[in-house]
Specification:
This protein is 53% helix and 14% strand. The protein is α+β, with helices and mostly antiparallel strands and 415 residues long. It has a five-stranded antiparallel beta sheet, with helices on both faces. A five-stranded mixed beta sheet has the order 7-8-6-9-10, with helices on both faces. α13 packs across α19.
């Protein structure tokens, strides 16, 4: 029986040791090393970071009918449900406490036993390895080979920022994958957020942070990051080519202006420019709102704006005006707006502001009345009065769009 286990297909430990060391000395990359290990074990091998992000998977073309393996293959991560099971069944605890690799053959691994072990870097668990039993039972040689493999992987991964704890957090990796376009599925995103124990508030907003001079970097960026994250505990920061991207997260739209005020001191202190996207409610659209920040930045630079903080609303009508001739701007201007603006000027009323607030709150009488500090019934009476004064139908979406454009164009020209 012993000779059968030491067949050429599954060589003994000394032969495996020599082979793995030779692979390492030949500067084989991580994918190649895991492939060689899979051949030696004649079993599928998975290597993840300590944050359960897949680094390498190799099944040698074998079928692995295991939910953990399938989810990792599909999403690039162990699922939140799987990680919860690791905790409930004590698997995470056992792996972290074990001095050597061991065979798990109960609970989650009852159908397919597996060898588990951690890869240590600088005294901390930086990665996990799993070897899935699909054919022959595991032996002591398999366990010793796993320990040796983990020692080799520790050296290979020692300077890899993707696995070092504290350098790449789960939140950062999610944001990076969204920005790169490699994460486009809402289902996968939600699964990864559960894995990261990330339950965000309902509103997001991108803030692109760039240095004052295009060619220079952000001085003391690590310190700046700590300042911003202390100021906005629910926010996330990720490095981008242009500087830093701060993702604000809050649950009350009234906090938008407050957040911008809080950003003003670090902007002056660190000599920065900020470009802020519109608020949005689904993180899957992060890439698109980041790209809108880039567009805002380019317009702000072209216009040589003195204001260091630029929002979409600051440049929207500037851009529109650049493309419109004087007579075309007149076409945009709604007659009802002119009539209402003239009435406001003559009678010191604020009907234009009332209607703009109504539009900006999604045509919500309740929300607009809160912002204007009036009773809901008063707000309704004001809207009806606007209709009497200029004939504007505040239930007509196209009319409201033209009113909004008219007000914006007039404000831009006055500025």
């Amino acid at each position: 029986m012993e000779k059968e286990l030491q067949s050429p297909l599954t060589p003994g430990f000394e032969a495996r040791k020599e082979h793995l060391i030779n692979c390492f000395l030949s500067h084989m990359n991580l994918t190649g090393m895991i492939h060689e290990a899979a051949i030696l074990f004649h079993a599928p091998v998975i290597l993840t970071t300590s944050l359960y992000r897949v680094l390498v998977m190799d099944d040698l073309g074998m079928e692995v009918d295991d939910p953990v393996w399938k989810t990792a293959r599909r999403t690039g991560y162990c699922s939140g449900e799987d990680i919860a099971e690791f905790e409930i069944q004590g698997i995470t605890h056992d792996v972290l406490e074990a001095q050597n690799s061991f065979i798990l053959d109960s609970g989650l691994a009852k159908q397919i036993p597996r060898i588990l072990q951690k890869v240590m870097i600088h005294g901390k668990p930086a990665a996990y390895i799993g070897i899935f039993q699909t054919q022959k039972p595991f032996t002591d040689d398999d366990l010793k080979t796993t320990d040796l493999l983990c020692d080799i992987l520790s050296i290979m991964l020692e300077h890899d920022p993707a696995v070092l704890t504290g350098i790449s957090t789960m939140h950062e990796s999610i944001l990076s994958d969204l920005l790169s376009g490699s994460l486009v599925s809402s289902t996968v995103l939600n699964d990864r957020m559960r894995t990261a124990l990330w339950t965000p508030d309902s509103i997001f907003q991108c803030v692109l942070i760039t240095p004052a001079h295009k060619s220079s970097g952000i001085d003391n960026s690590d310190y700046l990051s700590s300042v911003l994250l202390n100021q906005f505990p629910a926010a996330n920061l990720v490095k981008v080519e242009e500087g830093l991207l701060l993702l604000l997260n809050y649950d009350d739209s009234a906090m938008q202006e407050q957040n911008i005020r809080l950003l003003e001191p670090p902007v002056r202190q660190f000599d920065l420019f900020l470009n802020i996207s519109e608020p949005f409610r689904s993180l899957i659209y992060l890439k698109q709102y980041y790209e809108s920040c880039l567009a805002i930045r380019e317009v702000a630079r072209r216009q040589k704006r003195e204001n260091r903080i630029t929002e979409m609303s600051d440049v929207y009508f500037d851009v529109l005006s650049d493309y419109l001739k004087k007579e075309e701007k007149r076409v945009l201007c709604l007659p009802e707006y002119n009539m209402l603006a003239e009435y406001d000027a003559l009678h010191q009323t604020e009907y234009c502001r009332t209607l703009m607030t109504y539009i900006e709150t999604g045509c919500s009488v309740t929300e607009s009345s809160k912002l204007l500090y009036v009773h809901r019934n008063t707000m309704t009476k004001r809207l009806d009065r606007i209709c009497e004064l200029c004939g504007l139908d505040y239930h007509d979406g196209q009319t409201l769009i033209r009113f909004y454009l008219s007000a914006g164009m007039q404000k831009h020209q006055a500025g």
